[in-house]
Amino acid sequence: MTESKPTRSLAGIAGIVAIATLISKLFGLVRQQAIAAAFGVGPAYGAYNFAYVIPSFLLILLGGINGPFHSAIVSVLAKRKQAEVAPIMEGITTLVGGILLLVTIGLVVFANPLMHLVAPGLYITADQATAQGIDAATFETLQQTRAIAVQQFRIMAPMAMLAGLIGIGFGALNAADQYWLPSISPLFSSVTMLVGLGGLALYLGDKIALPQYAALGGAVLAWSTLAGAVLQWLVQLPAQWKSGLGGLRLRFNFREPAVQEVIKIMGPATFSSGMMQINVWTDLFFASFIPNAAAAVSAMGYAGLLVLTPLGIISNAILVPLLPAFAKLAAPENWAELKVRIRQGLLTTAVTMLPVSALMMALAFPLSRVVYERYAFTVADSALTASVLVVYALGMFFYLARDVLVRVFYALEDGDTPFRISVVNIFLNALLDFFLVKPLGAPGLILATVTVNVVSMIAMLWMLNRRLGGLPLREWAVPLAGLTIASIASGFAAWGTLQASEHFLGREGPWLLLLQLCLSGLVGLGIFGLIAIQLRIPEVKQVSDRLRQRFLKQP
Question: HEC profile for 420-484?
Fold first, then answer.
């Protein structure tokens, strides 16, 4: 907003966002460890993964930082005077809140048919189970998983309305140059989950993982998730009021030009981002037909969290400061500088994501064991999670690079192009899921998603190349190739170090596993750093300088 305090530098914003997101992600990791220890890959958490599809879809889509609501609000309010903001915010909040209240009611009423749509494999009959060679115990687990999932879905339905309010509020805070609270907010959700699981552990003790208590465990997961969303919304209200960003007043100024501008961006952007989230549902749709569906989706959830921890930190650090910068360079006379910013976003993504991806692929099994393997979570669960993690890690760069390019389209006030690409990719993802789920199981579903992200990134680059009068793609390809080679070398170095340490020291014991993991990771990062520095890529220097300033306190 034009009358806010002096704008921070991109590096300053990235630092704030990175630290806040790091804290949130660490708490998220602890939360996931607690879930793994309590439920392993049993029906309580398996059902939660199905039940959480639509609530998380809405929370990420509408309430997530860098989501369409957040992006639309930032894109419009960043260009407005302070005095104009409150009426815009109250009008948008009134419109979105009313629509999402109706959505919430619909979710509660139609919970069972919606869950049937999400996970039809949980609704097979006894005769169908026999025909598919599913034994009685597995069939009973499927039925239990289905009942728990429907219960959890109804509990979490109000997150539909909360998601919209969270996304709008955090977008306004970012436009007002406030980044700490939006980035730290997922912490509150993790805290409520840990409190809920702590209470359940005190109540049940060692009985917590027994099948007869799975429904109670599932309810605690759902209520804790809902409480976290409520807290995320409540903590932003004082900051909004203090910054003059509007209150809880109902305002029906839906025809105001500024409100219409937000809707114009928000509508297509929501559908576009929604199409990407539909791919998540598609994966779970096919996962429900895997005989041990609860274990498969649980492994996907655990592996996804390991990937999203670094991905979320780096994503927010890159995308949050770049979005306002893209928006301010949207005019044709600024396109030369816009292209520089696009390169900066893509190359910074490569510098950070490619080595992390390589190390996760090389160290997937010990990483799964160190993070999750305790109490109800077994070695077999670690192996299943690691197999999914390898494929997840393969796509980290493409996921974030695609998001960088999506933000460029939003800055150009073009939500239609990402939407059209996403529609095509829904069908591509479903087709790949169909062919890959049977031979590869859960890893095949993730491989389909990775392929879709690659196609999306290439399509968006091609269209931006036409839209902006040409991008220096060949020039950008050279450093990208160099960073890819450096990352592959780092992955092999980490894997070799791990094999050598296991040969001489063994592979049992949590502290030994942690030592091996750290040693292998440091060797891999060292190899990447040595090669990357020789490439003389400006973004490598920027990232390394920032790390030295942050951690070594060097100027």
Answer: HHHHHHHHHHHHHHHHHHHHHCHHHHHHHHHHHHHHHHHHHHHHHHHHCCCCCHHHHHHHHHHHH
Percent of the chain with pLDDT over 70: 80
Residues 6+ apart with CB under 8 A from 237: 169, 248
Burial of 416 per CB tally in 10 Å (0-12, 13-18, 19+):
middle
pTM exceeds 0.85: no
Q: Distance (Å, rounded) from C-alpha 210 to C-alpha 261?
A: 53
For the chain, what is the radius of gyration of the CA atoms? 23
Under 8 Å between Cβ of 358 and 491: yes
Q: Which of 48-52, 278-282, 317-321, 521-525 has the lowest mean pLDDT?
A: 317-321
28 neighbors 186 (Cβ within 8 angstroms): yes
Dmax over Cα atoms in the chain, in whole Å? 71
Give residue-wise pLDDT tens across range 122-142: 888 888 888 878 888 888 888
Residues 149 and 51 sit within 8 Å (Cβ to Cβ) = yes
Q: Which of 466, 347, 348, 477 is nearest to 412 (CA)?
A: 466
Write b or e for each residue in 308-340: b if 16 or more Cβ atoms lie within 10 A of its Cβ, otherwise e. Answer: bbbbbbbbbbbbbbbbbbbbbbbeeeebeebbe
Residue 409, SS3 per DSSP: helix
Distance between CA 496 and CA 518 in Å, rounded? Answer: 13
Asked if residue 220 lies in contact with residue 197, where contact means CB atoms within 8 angstroms, the answer is yes
